[in-house]
Design brief:
about 80% helix, Arc Repressor Mutant, subunit A, mainly alpha, about 80 residues, single chain, 4 helices
Length: about 80
Amino acid sequence: MAEIRDSFDVLMEEIIKEKKQEKEIIIILKKVKQPYKNILFKTYIQAKSLVEVANEMNYAYKYTINMHKESLNEFDKICKL
C-alpha cells in the first residue's frame, strides 16, 4: 500500500510540474507575434499535427513546415530575452 501511495505522490508531482511548465510556455507564447503564435499554440498546446494546422490556417503543408521553423526561432528569441 505504501508503494502505491509513493507512486501516486510521484505522479502528482510530475503533473504539477508539467502544468507549471505549460503556464510558463503560454506566458512566453503570448509575446510571440502572429501567425507564429497560432502555429505554436495549435501544435504544442492543442497537440495538433502540422497537417491539421495547415488545413485550419489554409496554408500549404510545406509552407506550414517553414513557418513552424520560423515560429520556433521567434519563440527562442523571446526566451533568451
